[in-house]
Backbone:
């Protein structure tokens, strides 16, 4: 089987990450319970005629794709695989609101045709003129991992050479309001630096698009090798550490070989305990977290994947993501663990190359 | 009629997300489709809904749209003659 490499990355997030030459050198500090992305100049990447019908999620996805493709040095891509939890939720809200407000009359087509989950993947294909395999995974907080798994299998089996994958989700005003009602969003505005110690229920919600060109051919720009990936729909808190150990064993790696553990803590007092349980087995390992920087959304783990890729290539760990006091001289193996509200867990193993 | 033309231009910009345009950029006799503003078939559907919702005009024959939506002048003339609200 072929090895699978991350050959380029792109991130649009609540931090200034769209410039690949920077690596979280300046942190944007928020005091909020919902944080939007810092927008790149979309007009630099998308012609105005094409952009006028695109919702924010589509613009973020298209621009992140173009940045990733540019960095990979490729003109075209064999396949596009997108992960999204909520898809184009803004246009969905717009369309459903129009149905209610206009008593099921005067419905216009634009928001309807742009409201499906696979609109982002479709628009990326149109922009890149890619007529290859195009698939969108909608699997809550395992959406990105599902896309990653599909790409990994295809590249390992040499079905494709270069695949663009990504995770994208946008903030929808009405959807966020509903999440606030059920306390999935923190009731209080909280500072970025205080999220980890919040001790309150709910998360700071966010949005973003993180795209990557994966390939079974290593090149000069390669960030890392994807060693393994495993997802779980349900996993009891008591089993997390045991499953992590098994996952590493299956890949012939010991806990001591992990140089960095990247965790999806979002400051939710009710569910960060999953991460606490896992870290009990990694007390001598350096740990990092990232959702205080990008917010929580269904594909926030793609920001963690971006972070780990960047750490492996630059061999630096930004101060803002350090979770404990351990120091690592060099980063060879990184383990990522993510879950949201105790469901849809994933372990991802990346290796320096 | 001039007020209606101005209103149509504002509606066009808002409904069709013509982000970079102002009402001054649209001349009354500019072609809305093709070489003019470059509107397309999806925009045509948006305009049909706009006629119904804002002016109470139901277009039953889509072929009619071709001449009605030629320019702001032709739209304003048709609306003035057929509007029910």
Residues:
């Amino acid at each position: 089987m072929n090895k699978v490499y991350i050959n380029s990355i792109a991130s649009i997030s609540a931090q200034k990450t769209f410039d690949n030459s920077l690596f979280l050198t300046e942190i944007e500090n928020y005091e909020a319970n919902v944080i939007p992305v810092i927008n790149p100049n979309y007009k630099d990447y998308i012609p105005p005629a094409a952009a006028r019908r695109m919702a924010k999620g589509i613009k973020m996805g298209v621009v992140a794709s173009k940045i990733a493709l540019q960095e990979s040095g490729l003109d075209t891509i064999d396949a596009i695989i997108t992960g999204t939890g909520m898809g184009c939720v803004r246009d969905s809200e717009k369309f459903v609101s129009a149905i209610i407000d206009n008593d099921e009359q005067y419905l216009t087509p634009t928001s309807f045709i742009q409201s499906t989950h696979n609109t982002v993947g479709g628009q990326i294909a149109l922009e890149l003129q890619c007529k290859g395999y195009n698939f969108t995974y909608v699997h809550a907080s395992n959406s990105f991992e599902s896309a990653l798994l599909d790409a990994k299998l295809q590249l390992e089996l040499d079905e494709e050479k270069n695949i663009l994958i990504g995770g994208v989700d946008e903030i929808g005003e009405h959807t966020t309001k509903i999440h606030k009602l059920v306390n999935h969003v923190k009731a209080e505005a909280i500072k970025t630096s205080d999220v980890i110690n919040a001790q309150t229920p709910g998360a700071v919600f966010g949005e973003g698009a993180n795209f990557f060109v994966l390939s079974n051919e290593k090149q000069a720009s390669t960030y890392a090798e994807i060693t393994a990936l495993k997802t779980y729909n349900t996993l009891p808190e008591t089993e997390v550490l045991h499953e992590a150990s098994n996952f590493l064993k299956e890949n012939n790696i010991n806990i001591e070989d992990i140089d960095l553990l990247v965790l999806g803590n979002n400051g939710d007092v009710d569910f960060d305990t999953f991460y606490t349980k896992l870290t009990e087995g990694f007390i001598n390992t350096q740990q990092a977290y990232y959702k205080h920087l990008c917010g929580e959304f269904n594909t926030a783990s793609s920001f963690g994947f971006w972070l780990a890729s960047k750490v492996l290539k630059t061999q630096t760990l930004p101060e803002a993501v350090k979770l404990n006091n351990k120091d690592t001289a060099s980063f060879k193996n990184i383990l990522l663990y993510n879950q949201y509200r105790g469901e849809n867990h994933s372990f991802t193993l990346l290796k320096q190359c | 009629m001039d007020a209606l033309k101005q209103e149509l231009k504002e509606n066009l910009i808002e409904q069709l997300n013509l982000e970079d345009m102002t009402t001054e950029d649209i001349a009354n006799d500019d072609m809305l489709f093709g070489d003019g503003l470059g509107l397309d078939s999806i925009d045509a559907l948006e305009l049909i809904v706009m006629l119904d919702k804002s002016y109470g005009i139901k277009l039953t024959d889509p072929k009619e749209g071709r001449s009605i939506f030629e320019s702001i002048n032709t739209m304003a003339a048709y609306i003035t003659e057929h509007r029910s609200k």
Summary: Chain A touches chain B through 13 residues (CB under 8 Å).
